[in-house]
Amino acid sequence: MNSNRIYNASLSVLILLFSVSVFADTTTIKGYFPGGENHEIRLLTFSDRISFYEEIPERTMIDSSGKFSFSMELKETLVAYLDMDYYTISIYLEPATNYEIVSDSVPFDNLYRPYTKKERLPCTIKSDRKPDLNLLISGFNILYNDFIAENFKQIYAKRRRYLIYDFADSMKVKYDTIENVFFQNYITYKIAGIELAGAPTLRPQLFRKYFEDKPVLYNHPEYMFFFNQFFNQYITSVSKTATITDLKYTVNYLANYTALIDSLGKDTILRNEVIRELVMLKELKDIYYSGNYYQKNIINMLNDISKNDLFPEQRLIARNIVKMLTRLNPGTKAPDFILPDIEGDTMKLSSFFGKPVYLGFLTTWSYASLGEMKILKDVYEKYKSKVQFVMVSLDEEPQIVRKLVKEKGYHWTFLYNGDGYDVLKDYGVQTFPLFVLINKEGEIMEYPAPKPSENIEAVLNKIN
């Protein structure tokens, strides 16, 4: 690594640190959600916008009067999501700002659907900062959506780019007095996305306009959306000089990220070292499941970046990508949890280790779940002496599951998760039912594992 690279990287880090206030400012969120009493509400953010690794900086219970509050330290503006069971609310948060969120009601009755399919909860958001960033973005998005609806064919079919420039100019005039840098960047990179879609062959010009000699806005959603759009499959499909052959050679044979950085540098667009490394991280993530690259090499390269790269943001992204790519892989530790069984006694997943565990997630309102339970009854009788069968119910009320177990004569363990969030997140539950096979040491064997209807017996027969 040459001295110029060290100097440039160190200078970039100093600029980044200088541009962000050393002192965080307190931001508060207060809300009133009648109907949501005694439900947990979480504030979700993304650690970065390459891996999209999810974090929960704050969480609390809505009290018996329907009210809740958060307080957090912010150094910069970010977009966050209020998450509660079936509902979500996106909100832009600024440092040293107080927010009030009010919903007319939060209906929970008879909501039979996965928690992963969130609905936007209608609400009003007010803040003591003027102008209010959420109102500014909402107002601009209406104008943006109307523009796209009216001019879609003209832009994308007839390539009349002047319409984009006219719209950009009109937005500059309209919001000329708004000094909020986050909002101005929001407009800039939202419009940049139209330009790219309308003229993908003008990529070099667009790079100079939107990336060259400009700071990397790691945590700005529209900047990073445009970045991901601009560099989507860039090495494998777009670049003419940083080729897929180079990518395969450096990943599959050299397994060296500095060699990969150097090979990407042949592309003139990627001369900016920070951008080049960010593209490299995105590319490593995107090729992981392609089947053309050694996954172990990719993970080793990412681990090297996470420890040795000069840019702290790049190190963080590399760590997050590794977490996302390796979670629940065979050989990784199965996330432990503590849940009550359907009688109310608390049980820990790890207490079942010592034997393999066939873990399932289900709901009684899912016909697929009910069908799998019917088949599992015979599987359980054949393998109960050497395998622990543990099903986790995601129903609203435990008595619903108790009734099913009693009526059907199911004798394996049923645990009750209800509206709990962490177990679903830890096991990536997106559809019902989901099954996981864990070995006797508590390590993932298969994720997802075959369902009972998919001949799970063939797998269980091989277990000693």
- Measured as a percent range, the helix fraction is 40-55%
CATH topology label of the largest domain: Glutaredoxin
DSSP summary, beta strand count: 16
Question: What is the overall silhouette?
Answer: globular
Assigned CATH superfamily of the largest domain: Glutaredoxin
The first-level CATH class of the largest domain is given as Alpha Beta
Give the class from helix and strand content and strand pairing. alpha/beta
Q: What is the strand content?
A: 15-25%
Outline:
With 464 residues, this protein is α/β, with parallel strands linked by helices. It has helices at residues 3-19, 133-156, 162-174, 181-198, 203-210, 221-230, 234-238, 244-254, 257-264, 273-287, 295-308, 312-326, 367-383, 398-408, 422-426, 456-460, and strands at 25-32, 40-46, 54-61, 67-74, 78-84, 87-93, 98-102, 119-120, 124-127, 338-340, 346-348, 357-362, 388-393, 413-416, 434-438, 444-446.
Describe the structure.
The chain is an alpha/beta fold and 464 residues long. It has 4 domains: 109 residues, Immunoglobulin-like (Sandwich), CATH 2.60.40; 96 residues; 93 residues; 123 residues, Glutaredoxin. Helix content is 42%, strand content 19%. It has 16 helices and 16 strands. It has a 5-stranded mixed beta sheet with strand order 3-2-5-6-8, with no helix packed on it. Helix 4 packs parallel to helix 6 and helix 11 packs antiparallel against helix 12. The chain is globular.
